[in-house]
Amino acid sequence: MVPFIKDSAVESLYNLTNPATSLIGSAIYGELKIGEELISLESKVILQKSFGGSVVAYNATLEAEWEGQDYEERVGEFQQSAGVSYEITPGFLVGGEMLHEIEFPDWKSGERSVV
Questions:
Q1: Between the CA atoms of 74, 8, 45 and 85, what dihedral angle is there, to the nearest 10 degrees?
Q2: Whether the model pTM is above 0.70
Q3: How far is CA 71 from CA 94, 99, 106, 109, in A?
Q4: Topology adopted by domain 7-114
Q5: Quick one: what percent of the chain has pLDDT higher than 90?
């Protein structure tokens, strides 16, 4: 039996600058997800800087969702994340990431949270 697909998404990533050849690497990302009871738009700005075997990255994300039978529930979210990784051997990296989220229920006020 084939599982029922509840939603589908289309995403795109466009590199503005290359982190290997530019002072800082940058890219923009977009995603559109549509389903039975969900429409979601997500956009990101991605920045990256490489230092030998280390990589420092920053992402800023803005997301809007409409949920429910008539898409009456509206939620927005702004996220910022920063991370660093170090390449111990080719194919094995260790690192950490910090994430800060602000949710906007009905796009009226902000609820702060840190994950």
A1: 120
A2: yes
A3: 41, 28, 12, 19
A4: Porin (2.40.160)
A5: 63
